């Protein structure tokens, strides 16, 4: 049986071009509201993914297409991330892990890195003021935090502490993160525990490594699905261990253009596969 | 006048016939459901909607298959000159149920050999392919010996792995590092890095290249536990079920990879 939701998803892709954001990344009022309401109606709460991983790719290309500076692309991306976090919270998703900055990104220009770090700090502060206090969202950051500027580290600690008891969506931001390093750090933690005598074991196994991975801070450490924007079809060293059985959804949209409708389409695609029994029973 | 490949055309027409029969089966099942419910009007409406959706997807499948046929028959010029040297290492991930179809797997390997690929890694979670690895290698060699000129001229380095070569291997490497640096060590414990883990994997026999491209055959759009350590920058393409694999779709996926430019985070 082919669910009606897929029919509507495919038909909507034939419609003419959608409303566009302003150059500062703000949504015009009421943009595509009817489309969003229609798609929301087809999603089934029973098959909603508990944990969604997100690779936010395409900010620079989005800016270049519009003749803007790369910084404008990152600003638009930041605004869009806040909306998507809010959307995920509303949809009942329990955990959202967003890949904000990889260890490879440290090879970018100093100016771009400095701008990105400032953007992250502003994002976390606006998250604290809005989504955490009004929507009960919990915030965490994973990655090599020691490499981040002190002011950003301080903002992260403050936000984590303030939202520690929040019960809503757990929003995790991966900054200076490497999937391989995540595994190495897990191995180091276990080895140090054995050395100190706090862990009695002669053999490390997969389960022990999984316990010590950075994503083991939430109730659902392994993502059910991964969304990557901008048409790229790879993991880029993100949650490689954790994504073994996650459904992949690769969107051609650049991240600042990936709105609520696109999120709903991604979720509908996931739900179709789960409800049709295509989900791997290896989980 | 177009010089048509009639073998390909006959295969294509047989596929159309099977899709039409499949559509008929679905309509039959829907019809049975109507009579089991009291609300005839509502289920009739559902049936009509279902029919429209099925026709739509049939049309989409038809277009995809036509494209694949045109690509494999050489009518689409942009697919003729494929720079296969960019794909230094190809991974093929198969659902374990799909992997039981050894003839289909062999056909896929034959296509890859003919295209000029040298290094292929086959993966399925349960190790079904490991059990049939010898048979696959023997068949490929015998086809070369029996005069299949294209296969004979080329060779394939075939790696076959399963779930135990993934997370389990990393756990073993972690044990290796634990014993080397923490348990039996007299010197100061070093700050372990990704290179140390990579070296440990090599020491215990799990050193293998990172695939440039991964093709996933099966209903599920995930990599089913392929060794995570090797997936940093691998392009991942979902190809659909193995039983409906098409040569044209394979060429299209590989060509798309050769056009990609990776920034590696910079």
UniProtKB/TrEMBL annotation, chain A:
Keywords: Transferase. Its EC number is 2.5.1.-. Signal peptide: none annotated. InterPro entries: UPP_synth-like, UPP_synth-like_CS, UPP_synth-like_sf. GO terms for cellular component: chloroplast stroma. GO terms for molecular function: ditrans,polycis-polyprenyl diphosphate synthase [(2E,6E)-farnesyl diphosphate specific] activity; magnesium ion binding. GO terms for biological process: plastid membrane organization; polyprenol biosynthetic process; response to cold. Its cofactor is Mg(2+). Belongs to the UPP synthase family. NCBIfam families: uppS. PANTHER family: DEHYDRODOLICHYL DIPHOSPHATE SYNTHASE 2, DEHYDRODOLICHYL DIPHOSPHATE SYNTHASE FAMILY MEMBER. HAMAP family: ISPT (MF_01139). This is Alkyl transferase.
